[in-house]
């Protein structure tokens, strides 16, 4: 009904060509979108919090999860638990008009439904899904245009990376995202699915574990030796300072002396929280990966 | 069980009537057989894996180390794994035998007295708070785990010896079990408070992992294990008498408190070192001792060395399964030992009753 009224107003204002009509139409549009646009968003998914801020919906966010760190504005916001320990009471008391939940939080969504709080459900998947999610969030928060603009910018940057590495030899790459510091125990790598794998493909690397249809794989020393990657690309959420700490971290790999990446000193480490967050900073990470793989 | 042990001891008493030379020959034969079996497994295991390698190339010193993938798979990936599996298996199985005899409880395991829970708590804290105490190729987690084990040993020992009459096995058992639950609760608390990825790493640690990556952790654990096994070597006769009851043992000249102290400390030390190396790999410490007793009777002069050797072979074989069955994916070794050990133990339980 409201939509119909808005449409009529717009048509009339355009058809009539009168300044007053346009003014009325704009006013109406603003007031309507203010009603449908959530003003009190609570986000339990850090990657989606980043997206909200990136599409200009930051002012609509009233609380975040205990793991949110970016952008800096979230540090001042109340914390309402996280994936495993959402503080339902606190969430309800904040009277949110949109709660962003992770896919596995089924009970929480049921509770929110009873409390009449709308939810936006998310599950991490491939890189394309990050862009789809930004668009969906844009629609949902009344920031559709900003979201489209952001997605366009990310897509352009990814396309630029693709163009830059096109035609270059794609090194067989081991993409490591977790291991015990300074040892080669509990090494976790990206299989052939998920955003990390997608990012590597765009950055011009050929995932040595692409045949495994899993996002995360724990690999043994033997498998790493047998797959003989030409590049070992390690992503570290925590900061590893250059100099001695970095040298010590990279030195662990020296044990795999026959691996081409080790022999040719192509063990690369990219550190920083952003590199493993499937959010709007994904283009930065892809650019950093491409720069490391194809200097 | 105490009935069984008593029967066994009666049998042993009968055997004692046999000439000492004959008994010694029997012990030697059985232990040699187990040693040969364990040696065969330990030698064979590094030749098998998810990748096929050529042994000729492995030992060909003409090929430079950097070019010799086969040698690296053998020496860097497989051998440390097999060795740590053998050490962990031997330590846990032997500790299981010692504790079952000392506590006169067939359900006792190396993990009953809270040592492994202490070790696990240490490891959890190291993972969750990213402790930085790694040194000489040994990870912070292993060091923190061993420290946790030592703390648990100290607490249980202090509780059990606080009574006037030396070491009380009842208090030892109760204190150990309580400490176990208490530490488990703390572990859950640490896991719950940790970051999500850290929580996963802590859970993974509890499943056991023998892919130690290099020889340093093995060398670091070795002094403690050698000490423990040196004590194990003098225990069997005392354990045989202890299974008859403390009074009987005391009547036959055993210094009961001293023996119990030695047994508890050595078994705990072995457990702590094994857990810090491979994580709390379950079922080895309970299944192997019972299986070996089924095979060779219950004279600890045979059971203790045979269980250590069988434990080594069993663990190496379980880890072999873990690293090949789903290759290139890895199955945590603790899952394999539990999948084999659990049903087996239930079968044993039903069959015995």
Walk me through this protein's architecture.
The complex is a heterodimer of chains A (295) and B (353). Helix content of chain A is 45%, strand content 15%. Chain A has 295 residues and is of the alpha/beta class. In chain A, the strands form 2 sheets. In chain A, strands 5, 6, 7, 8, 9 and 10 form a 6-stranded mixed sheet that branches. In chain A, strands 2-1-3-4 form a 4-stranded parallel sheet, sandwiched between helices. In chain A, a hairpin with an 8-residue loop joins strand 5 (172-178) and strand 6. In chain A, helix 1 (2-16) packs antiparallel against helix 2, helix 6 runs antiparallel to helix 7 (144-165) and helix 7 (144-165) runs parallel beside helix 12 (282-293). The longest helix of chain A has 22 residues, at 144-165. Residues 1-35 of chain A have low confidence and may be disordered. Chain B is globular. Residues 1-8 of chain B have low confidence and may be disordered. Classes of the chains: A alpha/beta (295), B mainly alpha (353). Chains A and B meet through strand 8 and helix 9 of A and helix 4 and helix 8 of B.
């Amino acid at each position: 009904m409201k939509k119909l009224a808005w449409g009529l107003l717009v048509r009339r204002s355009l058809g009539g060509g009168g300044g007053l009509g346009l003014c009325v139409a704009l006013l109406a549009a603003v007031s309507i979108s203010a009603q449908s646009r959530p003003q009190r968003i609570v986000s339990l998914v850090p990657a989606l919090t980043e997206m909200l801020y990136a599409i200009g919906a930051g002012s609509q966010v009233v609380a975040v999860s205990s793991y949110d760190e970016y952008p800096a504005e979230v540090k001042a916001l109340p914390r309402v638990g996280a994936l495993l320990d959402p503080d339902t009471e606190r969430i309800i008391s904040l009277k949110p008009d949109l709660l962003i939940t992770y896919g596995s939080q089924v009970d929480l969504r049921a509770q929110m439904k009873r409390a009449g709080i709308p939810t936006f459900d998310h599950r991490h998947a491939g890189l394309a899904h990050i862009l789809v999610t930004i668009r969906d969030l844009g629609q949902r928060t009344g920031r559709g245009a900003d979201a489209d603009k952001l997605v366009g910018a990310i897509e352009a940057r990814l396309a630029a990376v693709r163009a830059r590495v096109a035609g270059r030899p794609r090194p067989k790459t081991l993409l490591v995202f977790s291991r015990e510091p300074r040892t080669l125990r509990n090494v976790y790598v990206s299989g052939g699915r998920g955003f990390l794998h997608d990012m590597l493909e765009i950055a011009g690397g050929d995932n040595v574990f692409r045949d495994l249809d899993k996002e995360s794989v724990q690999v043994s020393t033997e498998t790493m030796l047998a797959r003989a990657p030409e590049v070992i690309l390690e992503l570290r959420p925590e900061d590893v300072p250059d100099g001695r700490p970095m040298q010590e971290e990279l030195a662990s790999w020296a044990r795999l002396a026959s691996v081409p990446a080790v022999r040719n000193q192509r063990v690369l480490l990219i550190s920083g929280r952003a590199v493993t967050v499937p959010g709007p900073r994904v283009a930065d990470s892809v650019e950093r990966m491409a720069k490391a793989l194809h200097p | 069980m105490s009935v069984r042990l008593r029967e066994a001891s009666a049998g042993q008493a009968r055997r004692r009537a046999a000439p000492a030379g004959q008994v010694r020959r029997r012990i030697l034969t059985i232990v040699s057989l187990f040693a040969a079996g364990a040696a065969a497994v330990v030698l064979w295991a590094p030749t098998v894996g998810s990748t096929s390698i050529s042994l000729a190339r492995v030992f060909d010193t003409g090929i430079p180390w950097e070019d010799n993938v086969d040698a690296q798979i053998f020496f860097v990936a497989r051998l440390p794994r097999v060795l740590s599996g053998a050490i962990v298996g031997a330590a846990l199985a032997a500790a299981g035998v010692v504790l079952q005899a000392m506590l006169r409880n067939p359900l006792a395991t190396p993990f009953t007295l809270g040592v492994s829970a202490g070790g696990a708590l240490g490891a959890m804290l190291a993972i969750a708070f990213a402790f930085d105490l790694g040194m000489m190729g040994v990870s912070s987690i292993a060091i923190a785990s061993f420290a946790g084990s030592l703390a648990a040993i100290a607490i249980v020992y202090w509780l059990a010896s606080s009574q006037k009459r030396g070491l009380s096995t009842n208090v030892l058992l109760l204190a150990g079990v309580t400490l176990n639950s208490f530490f488990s609760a703390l572990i859950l608390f640490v896991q719950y408070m940790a970051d999500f990825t850290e929580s996963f790493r802590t859970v993974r640690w509890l499943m056991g992992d023998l892919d130690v990556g290099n020889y340093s952790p093995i060398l670091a654990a070795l002094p403690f294990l050698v000490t423990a096994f040196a004590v194990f070597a003098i225990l069997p006769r005392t354990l045989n008498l202890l299974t008859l009851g403390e009074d009987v043992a005391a009547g036959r000249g055993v210094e009961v408190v001293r023996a119990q102290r030695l047994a508890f400390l050595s078994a705990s030390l072995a457990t702590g070192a094994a857990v810090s190396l491979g994580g709390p790999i379950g079922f080895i410490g309970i299944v192997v001792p019972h299986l070996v007793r089924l095979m060779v009777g219950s004279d600890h002069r045979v059971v203790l060395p045979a269980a250590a050797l069988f434990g080594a072979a069993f663990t190496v074989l379980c880890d072999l399964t873990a690293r090949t069955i789903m290759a290139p994916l890895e199955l945590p070794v603790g899952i394999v030992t539990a999948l084999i050990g659990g049903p087996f133990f239930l079968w044993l339980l039903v069959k015995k009753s």
